[in-house]
Amino acid sequence: MVKRWLAVVLAWFVPVLAVAADVRIELSADQLAVGQHTTFDVVLQGARARGLPDVRAENGLTVAYAGSSQTTTIINGRLQQYVKYRYDLLAREEGSWRLGPVYVTVDEQGGTSRTLVASPVQVVVVPPGHGTAPQGPIDVDAAFDVKEAWQGQVVIYRSTLRTRRQIAAAAWRNAPQAGLMVPKDGHPESREYVVRDAQGAVLVHEEWQPYVVTSSGQLRWGAPVLEADLVSDAAFRLFPRTTRELVSAQPLSLDVRPLPPAPSGFSGLVGDFQLTSRVDKTVARVGESVTWAVTLEGSGSLEGYQLPPVPETDGVRIYTGGTRGRAATRRGEFVSSVTYERTLVPTREGELEIPPVEIVVFSPRAGQYVTLTTPTSRLRVTAGEVGALDVTSFGERIETEDAVDDGPRPFRTSGPALRVPWERVLPVGWALAAAPALLVAGSAVAARARAFVEARRRATTREATPLERLDRLPDDPRERLVALDEALRLAVARATGTPVAELDRRAAVRALPPDLGARVSEVTVLVDRARFGGDLALPTDLEPRVRDVVASLETV
Amino acid sequence: MNRRTLAGVVALVLGLVVLVGLARLGAGQVEAAAGHVAQEAWSDALAALRVEGPLPPSATTLYDRGWVHLRTGDVPRAIAAFRAARELAPRDGALAHNLALARSELVEPVPAPVPPSHAWTEILTPGELGLLALLAWTGTSVAAVAWRSTGRHGPTALGAAGVALLLTVPAWQGRRAHWQTPVAVTVETAVVRDGTTLDAGERFVLPPGAELRAVARSGSFLLVEDGTGRRGWVLDDVVEVPLPGGLAR
Q1: B180 in helix, strand or coil?
Q2: C-alpha distances in angstroms, A464 versus A469, A472, A486, A555?
Q3: Rg of chain A's alpha carbons, rounded to an integer?
Q4: How far is A409 from chain B (nearest CA, A)?
Q5: Within a 10 A sphere around the Cβ of A344, how many other Cβ atoms?
């Protein structure tokens, strides 16, 4: 049974691994100074490699293998396996050098193999003392990715900090705000990496925040300031001592030009976009539903944009479907996309020409309005077949009662006029209602914890046996007598099964075998006389006699 | 169950009764003011339905206010009132009917209404779900105390705690989303801007009757969001805010 399940699971995952095989280079520091080195990863996804990847690099760079790690994740119920091969990268000569390509030979089904290739990346090597090496405790840099922008364009604000010191906390103040707006889903992207050189490690933290420029003209902002707590004394301390540093970047400016007079049909979108269209079938029957997806993707904000309505077309009915949009900042660039789904239902046989979609946008790169057009798609429509169609319903659900009676429901002449918003006090009610349960649970947990701690304490601190105590007698005569007495009492208690605190000497002696009881009494009297009779000169045979009695008691 | 346990349970139940009683008392005092409005005197009716004071209007008041607006042809305000009433009485069929009727009387096409923050708010209000959570927590406490006293009902207490948590988390989320109040555009053209000044850039314009959700206030401006995800600031004069809640000036 287990084997059968394993086979099913493998049958599910193996094709995924085979289809999704991919390899890529992940390098955070794309600029290094001569003599600096950093790490990069070759990430192999969904395949098993035969041996190590073959990494090529141009002459100005030196690459050394540092190790590998494997990660397995489940995304949307599918298994994904990643193997990361870590390499050390040393910048040797000034210039712009290519790292890669990387060749990886992977296993295929049936015992064959094939080679995957990762695209190369560019690494800029600057002279020593430049680039990522900080001049002070912290170096900061803040700037927009462009000097000039158009109104409505998305610009990227990049902030960077470099330091050789350990940072406990850091926050940017006085970031630019006026005339800018964060686009929907315009969450900042950040990355952190370490570059090493002869002086040690340099921590580099970079962050990219996309903004839509909403004003025009010469925009000026004050200098952003980094407030950082640098660790000054961290060795073996739980709460390290820190010193606060305020480091200012350069003041920011942006020259924003207003958009030129817009042509008719301007969508309001500003950015460099691509428009694509896809029809999920090339042949369909009359009355069958065909999905037509139009995707707009690019570097601008698509917040709230709706496609223009499609004109009535002979031979097909077009219904508006769902919209899927997303936006993100990736490697310092803002990328947004939205897909509009429409459903086509052909109404007659023959060749159907799906009308193109035209969108007028302003392209910051071209500096002018451009018209994006989808290519004309064609659909061959065949005769329909009763009962064999894939039909989608688009109408809203209509209540029968509403459809019949189209007047308003009557005015209400009774009912409360005000509403006590008692959901505001609900948290208090929850706390009151849950309090007894929490108290019970808390006390139960505390009791368990106490029992656990007590058990641990007993397990770790075993009480010394009487004989062990006799082996460790103190030197001081008084303390030595006390220790003798305690060892004797403990031995009697253990022999009679009585707790030491409850020990009644006479009763205990009676509980022992007669001869042993007599010896215990005799030795006890001797010890008492020595302790309490003021005779500190111990009988020379007292200790051997006590030891002898204790040893006998241990055998009971 | 020993005496102390019994006393605790009785105190808890009494506390709940007092809480609910206070809520009912607050609402009941003003019941007579809203009822029996003369249906033909529209201005008088609206004046009677205008609620002043610290407590918000009830679903009944909002329903009647929407009804009067609908009968007098002020469709955008009717939509705003019905939409707000639905937040308080999601299972009211007559309310849904009147809202659909008001929407159908709009002349210009409007953006899709903002979808509910959580699917269950189509059936329950956050307060109702919170009350269920309160009952579940009470049951948890009773079972926990019984377990402490008798050593039994431990699994019952755990199960009740799980149910209570499952109810409390969405109730808390819904309670927070509830502060974001529905509004509707009441003027010919509402300009949605980038910022909270009149010279801020125009983002887009909205026709009368467009349903929005107000999420924040800054001075005279409201930050609103429409059903397509567009956001921006509008002057509060151009929209009807039937349930000011946390957005009151």
Answers
A1: coil
A2: 6, 10, 11, 16
A3: 41
A4: 6
A5: 26
CA distance B226 to chain A (A): 9
Highest mean pLDDT among A12-16, A261-265, B163-167, B217-221: B163-167
CB contact under 8 A, A416 and B30: yes
Residues of B in contact with A151 (CB under 8 A): 201
Treating both helix axes as pointing N-terminal to C-terminal, what angle do B93-104 and B59-71 enclose, rounded to 10 degrees?
A: 30
Please give the DSSP secondary-structure letter assigned to residue A223: P
Q: For the beta carbon of residue B30, count every other beta carbon within 10 angstroms.
A: 19
Tell if the CB–CB gap between B37 and A413 is shorter than 8 Å: yes
Tokens 């209509």 sit at which residue? A398
Q: Count other C-beta atoms under 10 Å from residue A68's C-beta.
A: 16
Q: Which of A394, A310, A299 is nearest to A356 (CA)?
A: A310
Helix (H, G, I), strand (E, B) or coil at B190: strand
**Minimal CA separation from B65 to chain A, in Å:** 9
Kindly report the CA angle at B137 between B135 and B140, in degrees rounded to 5?
110
DSSP A461: S
Q: What is the pTM of this model?
A: 0.48
> Quick check: A326 and A336 in contact, CB under 8 A?
yes
CB contact under 8 A, A418 and B168: no
User: Does A409 touch chain B if contact means CB atoms closer than 8 Å?
Assistant: yes
Quick one: DSSP state of residue B119? G
Residue numbers in B near A407 (CB within 8 A):
101
A254 neighbors A213 (Cβ within 8 angstroms): yes
Provide the token pair at A320.
């508006």
Token pair 């005092």 is at which residue? Answer: B29
Cross-chain residue pair B137–A427, CB shorter than 8 Å:
no
* pLDDT of amino acid A57: 87
Q: State how far the Cα of A305 lies from the Cα of A324, in Å rounded to an integer.
A: 12
A64 token code pair: 């050394």
The kind and range of the H/E element at A94 are none
- Residue corresponding to tokens 């009740």: B160
pLDDT in tens, A338-355: 888 888 888 888 888 888
pLDDT, tens digit (0-9, with 9 covering 90-100), for B154-166: 889 999 999 999 9
Contact B51 A417 (CB under 8 A): yes
- Angle formed by the axes of helices A426-460 and B3-28, to 10°? 150
A430 contacts in chain B (CB < 8 Å): 130, 133-134, 137, 168
How far does B216 lie from chain A, in Å, by closest CA?
16
Whether B228 and A436 lie within 8 Å, measured CB to CB: no
- The mean predicted confidence, pLDDT, of chain A is 81
Contact state of B200 with A406 under an 8 Å Cβ cutoff: no
Interface predicted TM-score of the whole assembly (ipTM), two decimals: 0.80
Q: If we measure between CA atoms, which residue out of A419, A433, A437 comes closest to residue B17?
A: A433
Cα distance between residue A210 and residue A187, in whole Å: 8
Per-residue tokens: B215: 């999420």
